[in-house]
Amino acid sequence: MSMPKRVTIQPHLSIEELERRYRKAKDPVERTHYQIVWLLAQDKRTEEVSMTTSYSCDWIRKVARRYNRLGPDALGDRRHENPGGEPLLNKLQQAELAKALQGPAPDGGTWNSRKVAEWISDRIHRPVALQRGWDYLKQSSRLKSECRTLKVD
């Protein structure tokens, strides 16, 4: 059985600079990413780095590939750069829903997450999770309370 190939780290930064950035990083994700790269740059095996950091070997290799390709800018928490998906409803549909929520639900009762999800589903012609109905219902009630707070006599 052959030994697994070690991950090679491109010398974008010296080992000393990687350690300095690891120790100075305020963001926990960035700190761990620098730790991973720093340990790999010292010729540690992926399994050793995994045991030290508690990250999977696959994730460690992914961080290393990203660092090798893009350098230090590739490290850190990149989730804040993700704007997320498009909302289920466009602005016009959101306004229609807000107006609908001012009256009774289609069955004459009170609006709930299931009824809002069904209303949305009818508009966008695809199934909608109850959670999305709850999100829009909550958003609508928050907007109403903000409007009440902002009213001036």
Brief digest:
The chain has 153 residues and is mainly α. It is built from 7 helices and no strands.
Explain the overall architecture:
With 153 residues, the chain is mainly alpha-helical. The chain is built from seven helices and no strands. Helix 2 crosses helix 4 (57-70) and helix 6 packs across helix 7 (130-150). The N and C termini lie far apart (81 Å).
Order of helices and strands: HHHHHHH
Proportion of helical residues? 55-70%
Shape: elongated
Oligomer status: single chain
Count up the helices. 7
* Average residue pLDDT: 89
Structural class of the helices, strands and pairings? mainly alpha
Question: Any low-confidence stretches, pLDDT <50, length ≥5?
Answer: 146-153
Major sheet = none
Task: Output the radius of gyration.
Answer: 25 Å
Distance between the termini: 81 Å
Strand content: under 5%
**How many E strands?**
0
Search tags:
153 residues, mainly alpha
List the helices and strands and how they pair.
Blueprint: H1 15-24, H2 28-41, H3 46-53, H4 57-70, H5 91-101, H6 113-124, H7 130-150
Helix pairs in contact: 1-2, 2-3, 2-4, 6-7
